[in-house]
Amino acid sequence: MSATQSTGARVAIAAVLLLAGAVAGFGVSKLAKGSEAPKAAAAAQESKVLYWYDPMVPTQKFAKPGKSPFMDMELVPKYTDETDGGGGVQVSSERTQNLGARLVSVRRGSLAGELTVPGVIDFNQRDLAIVQARASGFVQRVYARAPGDIVAAGAPIADILAPEWGGAQVEYLAVRRTGDERLIAAARQRLTLLGMPAGLIAAVERSGRPQTTVTITTPTGGVIRTLGVRSGMSVAQGQTLAEVSGLSSVWLNAAIPEALAGRVRPGQSAAVTLAAYPGETFSGRLAAILPEAVADSRTLTARVELANRGGRLRPGMYGQVTFSDGASPALLAPSEAIIRTGKRTVVMLADANGRFRPAEVKTGREAGGQTEILAGLNEGEKVVASGQFLLDSEASLAGVQARPMTADKPAAKAALHETAGRIEKLAGNSITLSHEPVPALQWPSMTMAFALSDPSLAKGFKVGDRVTFSFDQASGAPTVRRMVKAAR
């Protein structure tokens, strides 16, 4: 082979190799593109636009982009990866952390039945003494008393000259000198009926002289509420001279919201704290719940009775009273997680995929930062305890619907009735029976058609057979659930 031919052969081989490499590269490229195609399609499918919406009216959806008919702004697309079948709003973990969202599990525990309401100390209106004049007369002396003074039992209020008592006392002394016991007893009884205290009658007997001036004293200790006697004035029999309220016990009138009135009852224990004595608790008892509601505040007045040792509790003092009803089991969620809008109560639910969704709940008692959940949540579900308001706003803008409350109680099972009868007709899924009375339904003996819950119930039976059967009316029509031949 010549040098020229050798060179031409090498050039041809090189050209073939280059062509093969190009073909191989094109094939590899096509194969790589073919393997990436499903991924690209999946990504395109994942980020597919579901609809367009106006963030200010998120419930209104549009099939294509454009200007919002509500606001001067462009419609915003909603992608498939922004929601799921169960609803909810997607929030990245970084954004969740920036929001300060804190998740807490709903749990079962004990909740103390506590209710704390404001109250004001008042006088015990049952411990009130009225000081009156027992005879007409004239005030000779007063003892420098004034309303608001605290006095002891037996403290003098005024000296009164009672002229009509003088004549009766002179007659009594004259009768005593006769020695007739019956007359003496009758005359003494007359002095008592005139209103003379026993001490004054005894003083007349000891001295043998009439005592026409009497000192009016307080029957009990306490504070003088009113004082209507002055030196030199005349008084009539039965006229009120003073009112004295005792201080051995006081009332605290607590304002119970009308909606919470069912949580308190007479006889319940109460713990009272007063602004005047911080850190100190006074124990009392709920004596009564007044029958009339306060129209302005829509509250009921609960009267708590407190012992007033040392007179430290003074009417007019402000305090807080806590009624305790013992602990009871409940499903609990943090009180700070509850969002009350006025129309409904919701919490923000969180799942493991970083999605959040509002859920309607029904709440009960509240104590110690925990709220009882009566419906709407299950044990173990996670709720947002901080940052939930921002997440709720995000869900509202995204048009996410709140999860509704579901009924906790199963449907009641239909009552089953049993009676006996005779088969009159068999027709597929129905049977006609002449049955005996059914007292529970007030049915007399009659012939009627029944549905069969299962056609196989009629297998082996024929017209004329006597049977005992059970039926209910769960579906609205009488339906036989069980049927056996009656014993002959």
Detailed description of the structure:
It is a single chain. The chain is α+β, with helices and mostly antiparallel strands and 488 residues long. The protein has five domains: 1-40; 49-82, no CATH class; 100-127 and 247-409, Elongation Factor Tu (Ef-tu), domain 3 (Beta Barrel), CATH 2.40.30.170; 128-245, OB fold (Dihydrolipoamide Acetyltransferase, E2P) (Beta Barrel), CATH 2.40.50; 417-485, Copper binding periplasmic protein CusF (OB fold (Dihydrolipoamide Acetyltransferase, E2P), Beta Barrel), CATH 2.40.50. The protein has six helices and 30 strands. It has helices spanning 3-46, 93-99, 163-178, 181-193, 198-207, 388-397, and strands spanning 49-54, 57-62, 76-79, 89-90, 102-105, 107-123, 128-132, 137-142, 150-151, 156-161, 213-217, 222-227, 234-235, 240-245, 249-257, 269-274, 281-294, 299-307, 318-334, 339-340, 345-350, 355-360, 362-367, 370-375, 382-386, 417-427, 430-435, 446-452, 466-472, 479-485. The strands form six sheets. Strands 4, 5, 20, 21, 22 and 25 form a six-stranded antiparallel β-sheet that branches. A six-stranded antiparallel β-barrel has the order 6-15-18-17-16-19. Helix 3 (163-178) packs antiparallel against helix 4. The protein is elongated, with a radius of gyration of 47 Å. It starts with a helix and ends with a strand. 20% of the residues are buried.
